UniProtKB/TrEMBL annotation:
Signal peptide (UniProt feature, chain positions): none
Pfam families, per database record: BatA, VWA
The keyword Glycoprotein is assigned to this record: no
PROSITE patterns given in the database record: VWFA
Superkingdom of source: Bacteria
Entry keyword annotation includes Cell membrane: yes
Domain VWFA: 92-284
Organism the protein comes from: Acetobacteroides hydrogenigenes
Protein name: Ca-activated chloride channel family protein
Transmembrane segments annotated in the record for this chain: 12-27, 58-75, 304-325
Amino acid sequence: MSGIILHNPNYLYLLLLLVPLVVWYIIRNKHFTPKLKVSSVAQLKNVKSSTRRRLRHIPFILRCLAIALIIFALARPQSTHSKNDITTEGIDIVLAMDISSSMLAQDFKPDRISAAKNVAIQFITDRPNDRIGMVVFSGESFTQSPLTTDHAALINLTKEIKSGMLEDGTAIGNGLATSVARLKESKTKSKVVILMTDGENNLGEVAPLTAAEIAKTFGVRVYTIGVGTRGRALTPMATDFGVQMGYADVKIDENLLRKISQITGGEYFRATDNTKLAEIYNKINELERTKFQVDRYTKRSEEFGLFALLAVAILLLEVLFRYLILKRIP
């Protein structure tokens, strides 16, 4: 961004001196114009005004303009060039998503896992300056995407997530431990895991609270989300005739999820439908804001020389008009 400023703007008050100068010039020309008395002006009506007469005021105008330019030069006009350097302090975030068979329950529309993927994609889109990774877990855990700023690729990988990719079950401790492993080498000041599950821990080599203590050691803050309606939900169930949909009690270990978040300095949320889940992600999005720092650099260049040169050029032009174009005949 560029512009012009005046270092000594008070000098512009000198422009007021032009007012009495103009008044003096008008009075001078009025009182000192030669007069000639004649009996009739009829013969003078066809006499055309000479070019020299029409241009007689130009030297005075040029002199006033030169004086104004000199005053502007004294005011020291300066051109300014501003540049903004924006630096961001991003946040490293791992989304840990439960993909067990119960995530196909239809208390969310069209089901829990689809709703979870949709809000995760929107969350990724809303945070262009952060590195984000994706971990999925059920009976075991897997890194779907390491931390990356290539959010287009991350969104594509998120869309590919589906239940059945891993052994069935709910290994919350493994999912959290894998997420922390993705973050432990991070150099950012803020490291976050958003862990979403709809059940109780029933598999895995790492106990959930042990994983939480590990997260605390590495300065990782964990937000936990329990996904599922209160009561019963239409859920895939194994029967003698294969997997069929049936109503089952929604069992979420909220005490465990709450302890995990408390240990790591995070927060626990309960999502009972699509709208509530989206609201939770929006709240986390507001809690974990990327920090921006704007540094402004301003460079100034003196421009008074241009005004001074213009004033000299106009004074020379006045001399040319006065002594060449308007030269008086002796």
